[in-house]
Structure prediction request, 372 residues.
Amino acid sequence: MADSSKPGALAGIRVIDVSRILGGPYCGQILGDHGADVLKVEPPQGDDTRAWGPPFQNGVASYYMGLNRNKLGTQLDLASERGQSMLLGLLEGADVLIENFKTGTLEKWGLGYEALAQRFPRLIHCRVSGFGADGPLGGLAGYDAAVQALTGIMSVNGEVGGEPLRVGLPVVDLVTGLNAALGVLLALQERERSGRGQFVEASLFDCGLSLLHPHAANWFADGQKPKLTGNAHPNIYPYDAFATHTVPIFLAVGNDRQFELLCRHLGTPELAQDERFVKTYSRSQHRAVLRQLLETELSRHDGAALAEALMQIGVPCAPILTVDAALQHPHTAHREMVVRIGDNYTGVASPIKLSRTPATYRHAPPVELSGS
Prediction:
């Protein structure tokens, strides 16, 4: 684990994070993991996610704990003149403001981007929003699952012949937080040239649409409405979940060479020479019969052993693990992807690996808050 006493890539960058729920706090945690000095400012009642349990740790929901490490915490009532004045004081010398207030709220308080930019010309003002400020849905609040529904994500997630399903994790919120952090870094880089801050926005709606690959690309090309395909990839095959004699596996065969290696390992090299399966596009066209043939062969194998053997010879494959098994996998430990801070915090580490200035873990999430 990295030495937490060494400065990270963003050492010296000061962030005021007044956001709540997921996208904004996740952005702040990314910046904090890489050395930024992040102060999380919560309303008097606290971030909503403090109550999003069970489970709870020290009276605070684990949901909150997963998004707010490497931050110090305080409370301010930004609806009051005193709270607004104190926020302005915090922004003196700050580099980044992260917020996800409903459009118009900060403006009503005299704390909108235009007002802050006049007072703090170097400040990077990052807003995570549902739909942006204007347009048909401008200014409306957005939540992950509703945006998954609206942007078409649910329509391509579900079993063949079934109903559309929400992706089982808040993928839109998470990618919005990632894009917000990326936008902040772009703005910090540009500020080195111009000396000026700017407004950065990542909206859930935009980010949801950005996740539609390859379905959007396919629709742009042929005009065919994407359909539910279950675990199967819409373009390539075998790229699907399969039963074995023991545990299920996922095959992710993306080219002809990988398919040839798979067939050879299964003892059926003739499948790779079959005109129905010899090319990527033909395997996709004849996926139903190919699936039946593969299932017959796979039913003779132990799934875990087969997946490991296939990975070793260059065929992308994995057993389908539960969350607990994934977090306890030996490679998870090797990659140092579980981090502990003190006795009361365990979380998933930063996936961003830097050789000289790696992520560090200096502060557990702020369970107790200072301020007023």
About this structure: The domain at 249-319 is CATH 3.30.1540.10 (formyl-coa transferase, domain 3). The chain has two domains: 14-211+333-371, 249-319.
